[in-house]
Give the backbone structure.
Amino acid sequence: MTMLTLPGGTIEGLAENGYLSFLSVPYAAPVTPARRFLAPQPVEPWSGIRDATKLGPVCPQIATYGPVGRNATSGLAHGINFLTLNIRTPSLDGAAPVLVWVHGGGYAVGSANEPILQSGAFAASGIVEVTVNYRLGALGFLHIPGQPDNRGLLDLLAALNWVRDNIASFGGDPERVTFAGRSAGGFAVAAVMAMPAAQGLFARAMPQSGASTAIATMVDAPKLTARMCAALGTSPEGLVNIPINDLLVAQRDLCNQSYEHHDFDRDGAAAMLGVPFVPIIDGITLLEHPETAAAAGRTARVPMMIGCTSAEYLTHSSVLPAELDYAGAAGLLHERVRPLDLTGGGIVERYRAALPGHSPHGIWRAVAGDLVFQNPASRFARLCSAHQPVWKYLYGPIAADETGAAHGAELGAVWYRDGMDLSRQPERQRVTDPDFADQVHEIWRAFIAGAVPDDWPRFSADNQVVLHVAQGAVGVEADMFAARLGLWQRP
């Protein structure tokens, strides 16, 4: 066992697999009923020695968002003391680069305690790794009059501040922090990059599988509040007194409604994604859309690595009817593209012309995958590249009918460690080629440490190239998904 004293008290971690682990270390006070909708509060000091050898509770949640959401939902114990970090370090001495990782889950499910993130892969390769739990769903993102907005993002800021102040005790360099995440974790990274309070808290950024995909305005955010109030039979002021289980049931039902029945009039821009609990441009914590900030050079001006998988909507399409035709695909997409002043029929017609070999299922996968993941990543990369170094990657093979690497497929390889127990990885993300996984992990590790492959050119509006990371071949190619942005021009 290994002891370490922090401002809040002494913790005890453990040595395993050649690195040291300190699990469920608090970066803020427990989320008691009275604090559910407050900004994160300072760590409460403890007496004695705090056990940091085991994973603690995660943010309360109920499965939602269809098969993808069910896969991402945590089955671990919930609790109030979940504003915590899992820290793994190669050594308490020195000043190693630091990775701060934000988990995905549509801002409503998931945790930093899932088995896929417990490999210690980065600690084993010389990086101090930190995975973050934060408030999700209504706890983190529901607009409640009189309470701070974007509480989930404020949690992430609190975690980054804690890392800045304490990571040297774990052998990490606070001047070399990479802020990264995948899916909603990547969306959150892009949003935090646009928050004035985040300036100086990290030196590199890695949004993966998307960027600023779903951002609510103060026109749309109160609509979700009204839906929650109607579901719970209370007023906005009464939301603070709702039992947590009732709040979670209403949250699940609203998430399912938005995900299964997209409605622009009801949800605003969130209809594109079907995820209702999202960051809000409140004029206080988040002043503007991340893309607006990026265009003006007001996002964190740090080197950025950004990218997606080659078939982001493959798993999502498992819920489609088997007999889907092009008209049916257009109908399913119509409400999702209305926020962009487009129609389902119009966007399907454009994609059919551009991708003539695609079936109706393939067209739906292409349009939805581009809308939610590829387009935001490409736009954010273009906008940021005018002000800072940007490298873009694509993970997985280009296969017929948008059937390459599904959303999240890269996670097992990114978090692969030689000698790890592969049975701890979900089957959909399980490594089957350790040599390729080593290659993938090394690309991520090198960026965190301050390097990129020698032959990987920077991405820009004039040089739209990606590092295509696929089994059997890794190399630079023209970015076919950035080129598809042209299909989305308003009529």
User: Anything to note?
Assistant: The mean pLDDT is 95. Residues 385 and 460 are 5 Å apart (CA to CA). The chain is about 30% helix and 15% strand.
